């Protein structure tokens, strides 16, 4: 302080300018070798593995843009882009050129990001610009200005390998399937390539990345575990708030509060809080109904943590005690889930486990009002891959070591306004399944005990869980 006081007016100004510069300069934790919770080296290894599979062309990935989400969305990088880079800078491109594509040239990787814009940064926060600092921070060979991306691409697409008559090199990129509205920028990119280089052969890179994403690394598993643990806190909060007379949205508010309080960035998908008849509607997420005394409430939720989402469903009785019928149906769903878990052996598929769960329901003495077995009310698949997408990418087949998936049998009887679903998340290991959500109660007695315990505790003591 003394030094400042004794300085002249001019040097004081210089100091102020310097301080302003330092404050405005990017302050990224240079010591961290991680991007979004995963080692920089892992992202690079993924890029190399991808181009190793794709030897006959270049890969271009188009990152998310802020404006594509409109006024309601908050920026979120595209999962494939994130998986290969860990970079969240909006409006980026990634270009990978395998070694040997052009004669004897080594592997090249370039991330294109917008140049820094101090005026815009006043609104959106400081961004790292192209250049050496970004190359070091992101661990990417070259970080260039996004303004130069199309010129660079045009030059590559008019180079010899792409002009070959016998076996022209391809451009691998994400080709939007169907009418996916979130693929605006990918579609624009392909249109532009077609105009710029009509000869270019475009191929879909998604299947290759999807198969890689199916098998999770140690750090991805840790992020998923964190998302699952946070989701468990959400379930616990939901159990505390459920009572006859409460609205579904109150339960949603409480559980999403638990998500955010524990560091989740967002929900991995819209929270489902379905009571009574709505417990039988699989993807109900209006959450406007008032909970009534005889309702079961299906709570199907997932916190997203550093781009990985959990997916956990529990079913609660409104009063904290299941009726006899609800208890019987609940127990049957739980038995089906346990049977599917036990049926796991290396090489089995989710489809095969599904048959096991269905058989349990068919063999049960429980019936509907017409005397039918209840397996006819299990109207969806047993489970799905889980990861960056809640219904994660990858072809369904034998469960491979490192994959994460859900087991979620359910019985939905609209005539009885009775729906029950129980969903847990599992990791496939060399030695069998690991139930990643095992700490979240699902036994009938545990559910009732949880609800009784949370009701008797004063609201103030629930705040910090
Ligand atoms: Mn699910």
Give keywords:
single chain; 465 residues; alpha+beta; Creatine Amidinohydrolase, Chain A, domain 1; Creatine Amidinohydrolase; 2 domains; six-stranded mixed β-sheet; 17% strand; disordered C terminus; binds manganese (II) ion
Would you mind describing this structure in some detail?
There is one protein chain. With 465 residues, the protein is α+β, with helices and mostly antiparallel strands. The protein folds into 2 domains: 34-212, Creatinase/prolidase N-terminal domain (Creatine Amidinohydrolase, Chain A, domain 1); 215-462, Alpha-Beta Complex (Creatine Amidinohydrolase). 38% of the residues lie in helices and 17% in strands. It contains 15 helices and 19 strands. It has helices at 2-6, 9-24, 40-53, 79-85, 118-124, 132-138, 149-157, 160-163, 184-196, 206-214, 218-241, 248-261, 324-342, 350-363, 444-456, and strands at residues 34-35, 38-39, 57-62, 93-97, 108-113, 142-145, 170-173, 201-204, 266-267, 272-275, 296-301, 303-305, 308-309, 312-317, 404-407, 410-413, 418-421, 424-429, 432-435. A 6-stranded mixed sheet has the order 6-5-4-3-7-8. Helix 13 packs antiparallel against helix 14 (350-363). The longest helix is centred in the middle third of the chain and has 24 residues, at 218-241. Mean pLDDT is 91; it is low at 1-13, 15-27 and 458-465. Bound molecules: manganese (II) ion.
């Amino acid at each position: 302080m003394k030094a400042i006081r004794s300085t002249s007016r001019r040097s004081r100004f210089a100091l102020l300018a310097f301080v302003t510069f330092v404050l405005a300069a990017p302050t990224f934790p240079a010591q961290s070798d991680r991007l979004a919770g995963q080692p920089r080296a892992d992202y690079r290894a993924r890029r190399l593995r991808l181009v190793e599979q794709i030897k006959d062309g270049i890969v271009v990935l188009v990152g998310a843009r802020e404006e594509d989400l409109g006024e309601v969305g908050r920026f979120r990088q595209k999962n494939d882009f994130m998986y290969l880079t860990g970079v969240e800078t909006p409006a980026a491109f990634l270009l990978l050129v395998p070694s040997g594509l052009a004669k004897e040239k080594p592997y090249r990787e370039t991330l294109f990001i917008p140049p820094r814009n101090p005026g815009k940064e006043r609104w959106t926060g400081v961004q790292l610009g192209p250049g050496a600092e970004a190359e070091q921070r992101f661990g990417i060979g070259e970080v260039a200005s996004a303004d130069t991306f199309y010129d660079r691409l045009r030059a590559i697409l008019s180079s010899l390998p792409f002009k070959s008559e016998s076996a022209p090199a391809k451009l691998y990129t994400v080709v939007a399937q169907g009418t996916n509205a979130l693929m605006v920028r990918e579609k624009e990119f392909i249109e532009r390539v077609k105009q710029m280089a009509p000869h270019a052969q475009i191929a879909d890179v998604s299947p290759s990345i999807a198969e890689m994403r199916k098998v999770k690394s140690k750090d991805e598993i840790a992020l998923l575990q964190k998302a699952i643990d946070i989701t468990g806190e959400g379930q616990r909060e939901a159990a505390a708030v459920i009572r006859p007379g409460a609205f579904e949205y109150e339960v949603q508010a409480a559980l999403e509060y638990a998500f955010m309080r524990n560091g989740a960035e967002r929900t991995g998908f819209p929270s489902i809080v379905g009571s009574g008849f709505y417990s039988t509607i699989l993807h109900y997420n209006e959450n406007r109904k008032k909970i009534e005394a005889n309702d079961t409430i299906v709570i199907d939720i997932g916190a997203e943590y550093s781009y990985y989402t959990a997916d956990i469903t529990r079913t609660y009785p409104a009063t904290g005690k299941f009726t006899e019928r609800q208890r019987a149906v609940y127990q049957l769903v739980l038995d089906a889930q346990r049977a599917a878990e036990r049926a796991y052996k290396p090489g089995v598929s989710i489809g095969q486990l599904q048959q096991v769960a269905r058989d349990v329901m068919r063999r049960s003495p429980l019936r509907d009002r017409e005397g039918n077995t209840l397996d006819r009310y299990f109207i969806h698949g047993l489970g799905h891959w889980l990861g960056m997408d809640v219904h994660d990418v990858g072809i369904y087949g034998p469960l491979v070591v490192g994959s994460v998936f859900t087991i979620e049998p359910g019985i939905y009887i609209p005539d009885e306004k009775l729906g029950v679903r129980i969903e847990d998340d599992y990791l496939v290991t060399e030695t069998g399944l690991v139930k990643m959500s095992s700490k979240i109660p699902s036994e009938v007695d545990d559910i009732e005990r949880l609800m009784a315990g949370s009701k008797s505790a004063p609201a103030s003591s629930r705040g910090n869980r």
